């Protein structure tokens, strides 16, 4: 038969305080990790459909606008660079023919 040892309250205060401090520091670490992961924002985003729709609409609008402006700038720069090569002998002839086809289509 095993004997159950009873403990006095005075025997544990330091151990209990130490354990509570350790658990509190661990909870603080978990809270910091959740803040870094932006878990609260993720939960709010998926629990509120209206906010998710507005966010996705705004993201799609900005992607489309950015793609359009980026394409415009890229093609403008490409056209400028190609216009520099019109004066070159071999490339200029090919680009001149291409320009005649474009002008005929207008």
Q: Overall 3D geometry?
A: elongated
Strand content: under 5%
Low-confidence stretches: none
Helix content: over 70%
DSSP summary: helix tally: 4
Question: How is the main sheet built?
Answer: none
Task: Report Rg.
Answer: 35 Å
Average pLDDT reading = 80
Order of helices and strands: HHHH
> Separation of termini?
106 Å
Alpha-beta classification = mainly alpha
Number of strands: 0
Would you kindly provide a written description of the structure presented here, covering whatever features stand out?
The chain is an all-alpha fold and 106 residues long. The protein is 81% helix and 0% strand. The longest helix is centred in the middle third of the chain and has 36 residues, at 49-84. The protein starts with 12 loop residues before the first helix and ends with a helix.
Task: Give the key terms.
mainly alpha; 106 residues; 4 helices; 81% helix
Q: How would you summarize what this structure contains?
A:
The protein is mainly α and 106 residues long. Helix content is 81%, strand content 0%.
Topology:
Layout (H helix, E strand, L loop, with lengths): L12 H24 L2 H9 L1 H36 L4 H17 L1
């Amino acid at each position: 038969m095993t004997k159950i040892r009873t403990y006095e309250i005075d025997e544990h205060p330091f151990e209990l305080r130490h354990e509570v401090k350790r658990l509190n520091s661990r909870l603080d670490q978990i809270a910091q990790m959740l803040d870094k992961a932006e878990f609260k924002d993720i939960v709010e985003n998926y629990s509120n459909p209206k906010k998710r729709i507005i966010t996705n609409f705004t993201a799609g609008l900005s992607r489309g606008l950015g793609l359009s402006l980026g394409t415009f700038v890229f093609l403008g720069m490409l056209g400028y660079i190609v216009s520099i090569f019109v004066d070159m002998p071999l490339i200029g002839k090919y680009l001149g023919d291409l320009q005649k086809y474009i002008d005929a289509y207008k």
